[in-house]
Amino acid sequence: MRVLFASLTERDAMPVEKRTRTVAVRLTPGEESAWISAALAAGRRQLGAWVREVAVAGYLAGPRTTNPRETDPAVAGLRAELARLGNNVNQIAHALNTPGHAHAEAAVEAAEPHLAAITTTLAELYGAIERAETRAR
């Protein structure tokens, strides 16, 4: 199916030089679904065109986000802490799912402080995001 240009501006921005190179990217089904959703949300019906637009714009312009969820140092620190806590919980879950694991109760007890820390960190993260968004307005 051929998709017409979304706007005259998009057509006018087409490069004069013909694109002759191909880059392939392997995705999981979930990643592909997320990419398609993002492309559609951006008003693009062609996934390849959206990927090129996002990649080239990001490469040529550098980081251009002003979203406090992505740029606020407090949010970034809390996201990193949350990732570390999640990693600990995943290691505990992996140990529990190992055949012949004899210490399930001990592993569950070891996980409880991490789960409590995750809950606390999530609350802090939501608060930091709200404060960052308020400052950005």
What is the average per-residue confidence, as pLDDT, rounded to a whole number?
77
* SSE class: mainly alpha
N-C termini distance: 42 Å
Shape by Cα distribution: flat
**Largest sheet report:** none
Which radius of gyration do the C-alpha atoms yield?
Answer: 22 Å
Which ranges are low-confidence, i.e. pLDDT below 50, for 5 or more consecutive residues? 1-5
SSE pattern, N- to C-terminal: HHHHHH
Can you give the helix content as a percent range? 55-70%
The count of helical stretches stands at: 6
The beta-strand count equals 0
How much strand?
Answer: under 5%
Describe the structure.
The protein is mainly α. The chain is 69% helix and 0% strand. It is flat, with a radius of gyration of 22 Å. Mean pLDDT is 77; it is low at 1-5.
How are the secondary structure elements laid out?
Layout: H1 8-12, H2 29-41, H3 47-61, H4 68-71, H5 73-96, H6 104-136
Helix pairs in contact: 5-6
Summarize the structure.
The chain is mostly helical and 137 residues long.
List keywords for this structure.
single chain, 137 residues, mainly alpha, flat, 6 helices
